[in-house]
Structures are given as C-alpha cells and as structure tokens.
What does this fold into?
Amino acid sequence: MSRRIRRTPYTSVVEKLGVKGFSVVNHMLLPKAFQSSIEDDYWHLKEHVQIWDVSCQRQVEVVGPDASRLVQLMTPRNISSCQVGQCMYIPIIDNNAGLINDPVLLKLADDHFWLSIADSDVLLYAKGIAIGKGYDVSIDEPDVYPLAIQGPKSEKLLSKIFGSHLREISFFKFGYIDFLNTRQIIARSGYSRQGGFEIYLKGAHLGEKLWQKIWNIGQEFNIKPGCPNLIERIEGGLFSYGNEMTRENNPLEIGLEKYCTLDDTINYIGRDSLKKIAKKGVQRQIRGILFGKNPCHTCSTPWPVKIGDETIGAITSAVWSPRLKANVGLSMIDKNYWDEGQCVNVLLDNKELMFGEVVNPPF
Amino acid sequence: MSRRIRRTPYTSVVEKLGVKGFSVVNHMLLPKAFQSSIEDDYWHLKEHVQIWDVSCQRQVEVVGPDASRLVQLMTPRNISSCQVGQCMYIPIIDNNAGLINDPVLLKLADDHFWLSIADSDVLLYAKGIAIGKGYDVSIDEPDVYPLAIQGPKSEKLLSKIFGSHLREISFFKFGYIDFLNTRQIIARSGYSRQGGFEIYLKGAHLGEKLWQKIWNIGQEFNIKPGCPNLIERIEGGLFSYGNEMTRENNPLEIGLEKYCTLDDTINYIGRDSLKKIAKKGVQRQIRGILFGKNPCHTCSTPWPVKIGDETIGAITSAVWSPRLKANVGLSMIDKNYWDEGQCVNVLLDNKELMFGEVVNPPF
It folds into this structure.
C-alpha cells in the first residue's frame, strides 16, 4: 500500500476489527470482508445492524453562484425540484450520453451541493466543464468521510445515540446530529435494501471517536463491522458503476428512464444523444439472471449470456444466493430476449456452462 | 476482485508467473510483486531485463481539429515544438495550478495525441473542458495496453525480436514494430532509470502472444517478470502522482520549472495562478531524505519530517536502499531547510524517530 491509495479515518479501526481485505474506490480503501463469510454477513445485515466504512464515497463539493447550473448541466435528471435537505440519485453522462458516474446529490443550500460519487473522478469532469464554460463556481473535495449504518436496527441504534429526531428523517432526506460539539449531516440512505443511514462525517480527526461511539452502544443491537454485501446488492438490484455500467452504457439501458428528461425543458450535456437513443429505443437493457445449481466463483470479467451460439448479453456481477439456492447475476440483455422467464445459458470464464433464466430485479 | 477493477491482457500470464499481489491504477490491475524480493528485483533490474505489465498507464486519445489546442490548454509546457514521433512529459494542472496528472504525451499526428496517464481520470477533465469550450475534438480510451521492457539488456533483446531499427529510436521518441501483421508503437521510455522501451500494444487479443514472444527470446537475457521497483524509483528521483504530488501541489514544488511557461506566449488553464506562485517563489519543494540505519516499513500515510518540534515536511514514499545502507524517502521540504545536508528527524507512524539528512535526488 502506498499513500496514493488513501487510508480513511476508520481504516485503523477496521484493521483492529480483523478486516480481511480491501478494494479501491476513488483512490481510497474500501473494506471488502471481515471474519465471517459473505453469507453470514448477508443474514446478519437482514436482521441486525452493521457499520460500514464507505469513506470512498467521496464528496465533490460544488458551491457558488453557478453551482446549480453546473450540476444541472451534468445530469439528465431535472434537479429544479430538489429541496435543501434532499438527496437525489443523479446519473451523470457525457456528450454521447455515456454514463460517467451515478452519484447521490445532496442539496445543502441553493448554491451549495455535494455529489456523493461512485468510482470515477467526477471532480475533474466538473472542473473541466466549469473552466470551459467560465462558470463562477468552486469545486473541491471536502474533508468528509461517509460512515454507513445499515440494517433494520439502524434507526433504533442511532436514535438512542443521537436523539429521536432521526426517526423523522424520511428516505433520501438528510438532517443533522450533534457529535462532540460538531454538527454533522445524516441521511436516510445507503447501499443496501435493508434501511439505514449515512453519516457524512466532516473532520477526519473525529473518525475513530464516531466509530467507537456507535460501536459501543451498538453492542446491545448485535452490531457487526461490514461492507456493501454482494449477495444483498445483487438480489436487491442495486447496480454498481464500473460493473453494471460504464461509459459504454447510457442511462436508458440501466433502466433509469424516470431520471431522464427527454424534452427540452432543461439543458444538459448529452441531451441530443439521449433523445436520439430514446427515439430509436434501446437495443439492450439490464436484467437479472438466475442461474446454476452450484455456487459460481467471482465474476471478474464479463460472462457471456447465450442462447445457442448467439451471445445476447454478459453478466458483470454474480454471486451465490443462499436464499434462492441459485446464482444471481446482473447482465445487459438484447431486446429480443429480455422478457422475464427467457431461458439462457451462462458461460463462466470460457469453461463452464450454466443454465438460467431472465428475471426482473430485485430477485 | 470485480469487473470494476479491470484485468489487463497480461493478467493471466502474470498470474501463471506467480504474481504475489496487485495494486490498482486507473481502475486497472498493476502487478506489485513476484516471487523474489523487491531487493532482488532491484539488483536484477539494474543488470538484466524485465517485462512489466503497465497497461494501467491508460491512453487518453485526443483527435480532431482542436486536439492540439485542447492539449495545450491542459498543460503549462509549450507543446508547439513537439514533433510527430516524439514523447513529451507534460504536467497537467487545474485553475489553481494544482497538479491533476503528469502524463507522457505522444504525438501521433498534428491532430492526434495520446496522453499516457498516471492515476486520475484525465479523460473526464479533457472531456469537460472540450464540452465546455465547444471544441471540435474526440476524446476516448483506445484499446491500448502498454508493456514495458526495462533494464540494460532491453535494447539487445527487443532488437533481436523486432529488428535493429529500434537502436535508432532515441530517448523519448517512438517508432514502430511489426507484430503478427500489426503495426505497433514502441517508445524508448519507461518508469525506471535503467533504460528500456514501452510497447503501446493495440489490440487486447494480442497481449498474451506479445508477452510470450518476448518472454521466450528473453530467456537468454535472463528476463524476469517485474513491475516499477520502489527502491529504484526513489533512488532515481522518479516521482509518483498520488504519492509525491496531488492537487495540493503545483508543478514548481515538484521541480518542474523547466516544463512551465511563465510568460504569456501560450494560453493554458491555471496560468495566472502559476505566474503568481512563481513571482512569490515556492515555499516548499520536493527533496530526498536519507534516513535511519534500519529498514523502515511501508509509508502508507505521510511521515512528518522535523527539526526539533517544528514540522518542515512529510515523506510520501520511502524504502530501504540496499546500495546506500539507509532508507531513501521523498518529501516536500520547507524553503528554510531544503539545502542539501540539512539534518532532520523523521517520525514514522507517530512512533519511531529516525535521524536523516536532506539530499537532492537522484540519490
């Protein structure tokens, strides 16, 4: 490990708690596994509460007179209805309507936004546009390190620590908590379908203290350290930038129509391309694939989805589902074959063929 | 590992050759270590020849009528003298003169460039600027995977395989080789001070064949698989984006004055900021630190460099040098203390204090 791959304010704590490996997202460490198996973590997440170091969800802060104009230019989603205190999932695209990222937007004030990003340097894209356009806006990465508390017991745990006003925060809204005389943003959000919160901790020096506070009180709720769980994510139909979508994909292929403004009411980069694609209709779209009767290994290169000799898609994430007793995967699927129930074959690493069917996620 | 962290055309081969770990650069795998120690690799690299998978040096292709205008806008280095067939090291900066990347520019034609990048999404910065400016230019990542052949026997090995015309390619120039009826770019360049070449292989499907060809003929030259060697890199004073420099640093702090145009002969982003910094004079600059009599461990967070209680810098990369029998490190050092021979203390991980001195790299 070098400094280039940044540690987080929580890295020392997760090391003490026995983290077994890291991935790298946005040039920063993301814990990948702890002592227990991914399957045990999956069941635990569905029943109790977990604490995740998701500092790698870096914030791109956009602030200034042209902030809202810049953010709108980057996304096909109309952000004019976004209220202060609201989170909004916004696909970001380029001039060809290729996906560049799919962050969560936080509106802190009318001229002040955070983009909580997936794995690509959105800051550089925003800077480039702002410089090119001559916008009056400042773009930076604040000293903020999201900590996720996920699982059905999250609300009970956090309201015990920070107060019952948390219960009033509805999904994809944010409020504030006090921690050691600082005011911190907390949103009802997170990369799971089990409910929970994300604390956007400002101030790296507070990291270990915040973790420890939640960890200590969390003991009575059977808290465990965790990380985004691959089984839960795929079953829940949560897509991952870099896996299910890249710059080769447009938002309509990812099923994001409802976030795409396809008339001319707003101006954004890639609008003409996206309208053209919409008019023609997408030729492929993301689907779930339920396949095989034995656990597959890790999908590190796309696995072709086939009907006979014809390749009709490629699985980009897959894992064994202990609940469904089959593998669950996510794949682009050609238009002619994307109906639920379509029978397919999955070719794993050019070796093993598994039988499966098309499913509309969530599984 | 997930698809998000991309394998390269050579990954399967390095796995067969016993790679012991990977790092991640530009969302892609970079081998970090093989069977032998970093010290054995160091001595081998200085004497023989190594083959490195540096596919993670992604190419950002800029092509079209405004290509040269866009590239010039991104760097303070005057590129007007760059010839077709030439490589040029160009720092890329933002509006505050903060470093965004430090790629090698390859000029393929007057309207056609590749930026062979360090670890940040330069493609997004370039796209943002081009879109903002309305430039007539296309920006993409081509199907190109650099393979480095480094060490004193590189030229002998490669000219035996691809022909003696390679000997005519001078430092930071590129030419062409034929491989399986394809024409491939080869440059005399690479991330070591031991001489060598980089083949910019176009066509992922050719990767294993190219490696195998070089590997087979390389046996008589005692070829080994390798990767950028930390000892050789630090001793040689080769800086690494994300380690020695980030957006917090300007090119003058990194000693890149000779690549910075500080008058108004060219127009580039950050020019006013850089001129202002130059006029005032930099307050800190990169230096080498030779310290300690016992091997240090990995520097994964910066180590303060101190004189008494005062912190005058921070080491961002460090390793034991078997040749110098001391640790070698790279650090920003405050102006008042940056003269060669200045005695300092290095505080490793808030624990151990080692005595050292300031050195002008290369060591």
